[in-house]
User: What shape does this take?
Amino acid sequence: MRAPSEGLANRLPNRAPPVYAGAMIVLTRPLPAARRFARALRQLGMDAPILFSPVLEIVPLGGGPLPDGTLVFTSENGVAAASELGSLAGRTVITVGERTAAAARAAGAEAEVLGGDVAALGDAILARGGGPYVHLHGRHVTGDLAGRLQEAGIAAEGRAIYDQRAKPLTEAARSALMGPEPVVLPLFSARSASLTAAALDDRPVNLHVVALGPKVLDSWPWPMATLGADRTDMSAMADATVAAWRDARG
Assistant: This one.
């Protein structure tokens, strides 16, 4: 049986999920990032149906202009929201990961990648010293990067410039997650894990969760999750999701 395309699954967000002799994928990331991740899965040879059901929506908060100092970004969403506050052209910025750095460079910034996750980024900035640093982030964050730097005597502040507003899980996604057929659920943040779990009535019976790191794993309430990757990057997450899909379909 030929699997429906990701486009078809996306056009049917509130209907019953398509019948498929294998494991489906449910993506709960904000839609632009979910579509990009879906393309990565397709490039790895995964032909399963993909249901899109974002449980978060990125909404810029405004409040410009951009502050002085070295800007620190831990997501592409921060770069996009900062670009609405002012020009990043010529600004020196520090990022987590190459994708966020690429977004900053596309906006004209001089970006340097320090660390693959927020903890490693904090370690690198502590070793470097200097400052001041301004972490531009979402309203909901894991950890306090600026506070950690301040405790070490480094001038730093954190500023929320976008919100990650909750969205309800679609009926199609909810039915798939609670149904008898195998489903793979990649989870990219602790908040998306909590919001998705809260939308379910009970423990799913045939769900295979792939979590991006231990903090995301800890936010999933049922002991069915598998740590998604030994690196917190999208390439490793895509590899882990495809591996889980192959295992789930038997």
Notes: The first strand starts at residue 24 and ends at 27.
